[in-house]
């Protein structure tokens, strides 16, 4: 790209100013452009290591089912797409739900909706004590809490 830029500049110099640029100056200019590019885009030797705490999906214990749920929320349109997946210990899909909703209030509201869909899937299939897994700690904690919940998410 630097070569093209240097050639373009040399061409413009000839066309607009009537000045011919010697080839050795074009090469020198190209080398300077490359040097500047490398200097600006140098990768630091102190690059932080990749995180080693990557969480991977784990199969449920034998005889149990795991329900994973997640959602994508657009705060501008207040629309959401949700997905729920139920799998067994062999990673086989046992049930799924995918829906879209409009007029949601917040990301927490979305997480509640998708968690509810996971519970409804388990109930509709007659699944007793499934394992629920989602990425909203607030919602998971609220689901597991015993007693009434009078928050706005309720």
Task: Explain what this protein looks like in three dimensions.
The protein is an alpha+beta fold and 154 residues long. The protein folds into 2 domains: 2-40, no CATH class; 66-144. 39% of the residues lie in helices and 19% in strands. α1 crosses α2 (23-40). The radius of gyration is 29 Å and the shape is elongated.
Draw up the topology in text:
Blueprint: H1 2-17, H2 23-40, E1 66-74, E2 79-87, E3 93-101, H3 107-124, E4 131-133, H4 137-144
Parallel strand pairs: 1-4
Antiparallel strand pairs: 1-2, 2-3
Helix pairs in contact: 1-2
Largest sheet: 4 strands, mixed
Q: Which spans of ≥5 residues are poorly predicted at pLDDT below 50? A: none
Please tell me the overall pLDDT. 82
* N-C termini distance: 58 Å
- Sequence of secondary-structure elements: HHEEEHEH
**Overall tally of domains:** 2
Strands side by side in the biggest sheet: 3-2-1-4
Total E-strand runs:
4
| Relative strand content | 15-25%
**What class do helices, strands and sheet pairing give?**
alpha+beta
Cα-atom radius of gyration: 29 Å
Put simply, the count of helices is 4
Helix coverage percent of residues? Answer: 25-40%
Shape: elongated
